[in-house]
Amino acid sequence: MTDRSPTDSSWPLTTLPWQRESWLRLQRAVASDSLAHALLLSGGAGIGKTHFSCALAGLLLCHQADATGACGHCRSCQLLQAGSHSDLLHMVPEPGSRVIKIDQVRTLIDFANQTSGLGPRKVMLINPAEALNLNAANALLKCLEEPAAGTHLLLVSHASSRLPATIRSRCQLLTLPAPAPEQTRSWLDQMTGDATTSAALLEMTGNRPTAALHLHHSEGLQQQQALQQGLDALAGGAISAIQFPQLVAELELAEVLGLLAGRLQTAIKAAVQDQPGDLRQHFLLLDELLRLQRAVLHGGNPNRQLTIENCAAELARVLGAGQ
Ligand SMILES: [Zn+2]
User: Fold this and answer.
1) What is the pLDDT of residues 132-175, one digit of tens each?
2) How far is the CA of 153 from the centre of ligand 1 (A)?
3) Could you tell me which CATH number the domain at 17-175 has?
4) Contacts (Cβ under 8 Å, ≥6 apart) of 44
5) Domain ranges, ordered by start, for the chain
6) Distance 2 CA to ligand 1 centre (A)
7) What is the dihedral of CA 47, 51, 55, 57, to 10 degrees?
8) What pLDDT digit, counting tens, does each position of 246-268 carry?
9) Residue 212 Cα, ligand 1 centroid: separation in angstroms?
10) How much distance in Å is there from the Cα of 39 to the middle of ligand 1?
11) Whole-prediction pTM value?
C-alpha cells in the first residue's frame, strides 16, 4: 500500500554516494536480523533521507538481498517499483494537508497487525514524521511500545526535535550526513549532464541535492517558471505580499525563502552591472532570507504565512526602492 512515490516514478533501491557508511551499518544489522524495530532517520532537508529510507525499505522486503542491497528483480522488488507492495505502508500527509492525522495512524496500526503477504517482514514508512499531529503521535506510541513481530517502522524527519520525546526515545536515531559541496555537484552533474545547470539548481535550492534534482525534472521546471512570473509580479507591484503565499502554497517554507533570495541575488547582479547604487538594503535582506532559510532547514518552525508575507513585502519594498 503506497500513498505516493517518494521523489520519482520508480522506487530507489540504492543509496546516494554520501550515504555509504550509514548504509553499511544498517545493511549489516538487517543481515544479522538485529535492526531496531523503529528507526528515526534524521538530517537536514533535501539531503536524500527519503531516498535512503526507500532503499532501506527495499532491503528489508527483498527476497534475495545481498551485501549491496535489494536485488531489484524479485517479486518484492518489482511490486515495490510498481508502487503496489502489500507489505509496505508509506504514510505521507493527505493531499492538501500538511499534517498526518490520527485516522492515518489507525490504518497503520491495523496494517501492523495483519499478516504479511509476501515475506517475513512488513515496513511502515512515515515521512515526514514531524507532520504527525499530537493525537496521531500519541496513537503511534502503541505501535512503538508493543511492536508486532516482523514489522519495521521508519520515521523520516528533518526536524526531529519537533517530535514528542515519547516518540524519539522509543526509536533508534540515525542522523544521515549532508554531502560535501563537491559530492553534491558531481552527483548532480551526472543527473543533469551540465555543470552550469547543476550550479543554478543548487543555488536555487540552498545546496540541497535531492531538492535540486526535483527542480530539474520537467514538472519542477514548469513550476519554477510559473514561480518566476509570480516573483516578477511581486517585484513589479502587480500582486501584493499578502497574495504571494497562495502562489507558493505547494512549496516548503525553505524553498520559498530560497526563491526570494534567488530573486534578490539576480536583482543585485543586475544592479551591479547596470548602475551600482546603494545596495545596503538588498544585502541586509539577503542575509536575513538566508539566515531564515538555514534556521528552517535545521528544524526551526516559524509561522509560515507570516514569514512568507513579511519576506515578500520586504522584497517588494527593497526592489521597488532600487528602481
Ligand atoms: Zn529483490
Assistant:
1) 999 999 999 988 998 888 999 999 998 888 899 999 999 999 99
2) 19
3) 3.40.50.300
4) 158, 178, 208, 297, 298
5) 17-175, 181-216, 222-321
6) 17
7) 110
8) 888 877 888 889 889 988 988 88
9) 29
10) 22
11) 0.73
